[in-house]
Design goal:
Layout (H helix, E strand, L loop, with lengths): L5 E6 L3 H12 L4 E4 L31 E7 L2 E6 L30 H5 L14 H16 L26 H12 L5 E2 L38 H7 L3 E4 L3 E7 L5 E7 L5 E11 L5 H8 L23 E9 L14 E3 L13 E5 L5 H6 L9 H11 L3 E9 L7 E9 L5 E6 L4 H21 L3 E5 L38 E3 L14 H19 L1
Parallel strand pairs: 1-2, 1-9, 2-6, 3-15, 9-17
Antiparallel strand pairs: 3-4, 5-11, 7-8, 8-9, 10-13, 10-16, 11-12, 12-13, 14-15
Helix pairs in contact: 1-5, 1-10, 3-10, 4-9
Length: about 550
């Protein structure tokens, strides 16, 4: 089925796609936004710790499987794997994320200039600077809604405007963390959050839900694209949101430009939608799949892939830290936790490449606590139950968001023979974290232990960085931006090299992923890209 021609198509209604679609629509472009899932509400989500997952709606893995290549004694083998923490709904991960809303630091955009050539990595500078993105960080903070206070963070890059909402008040645990950091000469400050600390944008303030992380907000106080920019785009009359759609192909014309996309609706009927501009914002795994699936005479190995960079440099964050119990209760259990952080170790540590932040963890339930017990504690029986009862209110975990080193062998690829339900080549993942990431994790776990000891923990154990595929949290890097088409996939605006009307609008374009959560940067890049498209289109 063929539909009326549109000015623009955006594939993926997450942090990047939602922003781009709204901006194009309010600037007069007839825009169609495609989302593989649908709208979700708190009442429609099962709030059961045994059943809960990071995806608000579960993906049918029989329809959309993927494989992971693992090294064994017998060589490489394929095993089924998950999809990482990507969403399956309008708003994608911004519905159920923890809502940390960081700006990257100046160094994060100039990693090669800061650290030099790092062997066996693809470490590089971004083609843009923090100053280039600063106005769009501000726009994202005010349109999405961020609560914060950067006055006590001496490491933050300069800003021209304060946050639109005051920072959240810290908890008893936050005070414990902050006081210990100050005694060690560190600089604790409030975590910037895309949650309403006060009523904002005609929505209520946060009720401090304990299960905020991984959950839909019951009062709509957590700010994502689903309850901010996408509704604004729809209200403009220029945004057509099509949910429960699976986009399978970018269609190219004889003129070398994208002319539209093919997709299936919820009834498995195939459609074609034409447009003058196509933006792919489907995640750092699904976006390269769409590019690699489409081949032409000019791009025989996939769109934008003449130099083999599509799908490469897959990266996320290597989480690590330390955990401990205290001789007294330290939790009030006002959610969602994680109100204070430090950035003292975010860059410029001798022998360490890259950045990392430390914050105490989000709240969680008894099951997750059981999984985070000390390694010397039994996993079942009376002793296990006694530990659970005695320490649930006395436990904390310091989490370190460690920047992974990009490397060429960590990648997304499409399978040569296996197809999914819609006939697309399934996604394959390969590669492991770089050895420098584990060195970095060891360093940050040491720092976390120091803070817990100073805070008065009576038992402390390390939470090391895990080995394995790096594609679980904050996927990025697989269609990196750059000025040189031979070492990147898009230019500085997310425009695919060699195809002037095809754009990538998600974290795939990130050259590096910083020591912070990337959601605000994805949104800021979306605002910047949309501005470029509007100017070019008009």
């Amino acid at each position: 089925m063929k539909h009326k021609h549109a000015d623009a198509i955006v594939v993926g209604a997450g942090a990047g796609g939602g922003v781009v679609a709204k901006e194009l629509a309010v600037n007069g472009l007839q825009t169609v936004l495609f989302e593989r899932g649908g709208w979700v509400k708190y009442d429609g989500k099962i709030h059961d710790e045994l059943l809960k997952s990071r995806g608000v709606l579960p993906i049918d893995r029989k329809k959309n499987p993927r494989v992971l290549i693992k090294e064994t004694e017998d060589g490489e083998v394929e095993v089924p794997t998950g999809i990482g923490h990507t969403g399956y709904n309008v708003g994608s991960g911004t519905v159920n994320y923890g809502a940390m809303a960081w700006r990257f630091m100046r160094e994060d955009f100039k990693m090669k200039s800061t650290y030099g050539e790092v062997k066996t990595t693809t470490l590089a500078d971004w083609p843009i600077s923090y100053d280039d993105l600063e106005p769009y960080y501000e726009k994202a903070e005010w349109e999405i809604g961020v609560a914060g206070d950067a006055s006590n963070n001496p490491f933050a890059a300069p800003r021209k405007k304060e946050y639109p909402m005051p920072a959240f008040k810290t908890s008893e645990l936050g005070e414990l963390f902050s006081d210990a950091c100050k005694r060690l000469g560190l600089h604790p400050f409030p975590v910037p959050m895309a949650r309403n600390s006060v009523p904002y944008n005609n929505r209520s303030s946060c009720i401090q839900n304990r299960i905020c992380l991984t959950s839909v907000c019951p009062v709509d106080a957590k700010n994502g694209t689903h309850n901010t920019v996408i509704p604004v785009g729809i209200e403009s009359g220029n945004l057509d949101l099509r949910i429960h759609t699976q986009v399978t192909k970018v269609v190219m014309g004889d003129n070398g430009k994208a002319i539209g996309i093919k997709y299936y609706d919820k009834n498995d009927l195939e459609h074609f939608q034409s447009a003058d501009i196509v933006v792919i914002a489907a995640s750092a795994t699904e976006t390269p799949r769409l590019l690699l699936t489409t081949t032409t005479a000019k791009f025989p190995n996939g769109l934008g892939n003449n130099y083999g960079w599509v799908g490469r440099n897959l990266q996320s964050h290597a989480y690590c830290g330390a955990a401990g119990t205290f001789p007294k209760d330290i939790h009030s259990w006002n959610g969602p936790g994680a109100t204070m952080a430090i950035a003292d170790y975010n860059h410029h540590n001798e022998g360490i490449v890259g950045g990392a932040s430390i914050h105490y963890d989000f709240h969680f339930g008894p099951l997750r606590f059981a999984k985070r017990r000390p390694p010397w504690e039994p996993t079942w029986g009376l002793t296990h139950k006694e530990f659970q009862r005695e320490n649930f209110y006395r436990y904390t975990n310091l989490r370190c968001c460690v920047q992974e080193m990009p490397n060429f062998n960590s990648r997304v690829f499409i399978h040569k023979t296996k197809k999914d339900y819609w006939g697309m080549p399934i996604v394959g993942l390969a590669g492991e974290r770089h050895p420098l990431d584990f060195k970095h994790c060891d360093f940050m776990s040491d720092r976390s232990e120091e803070i817990l000891k100073e805070a008065g923990a009576n038992r402390i154990w390390r939470v090391p960085g895990k080995k394995g595929n790096p594609a679980m949290v904050h996927q990025a890097g697989t269609c990196r931006m750059g000025d040189d088409p031979t070492t990147s996939v898009t230019n500085r605006y997310g425009q695919v090299h060699g195809i002037d009307n095809l754009y990538v609008g998600d974290a795939s374009t990130h050259v590096t992923n910083s020591g912070f959560n990337p959601s605000l940067t994805i949104m800021a890049l979306g605002f910047r890209m949309a501005e470029h498209i509007v100017e070019k289109f008009k």
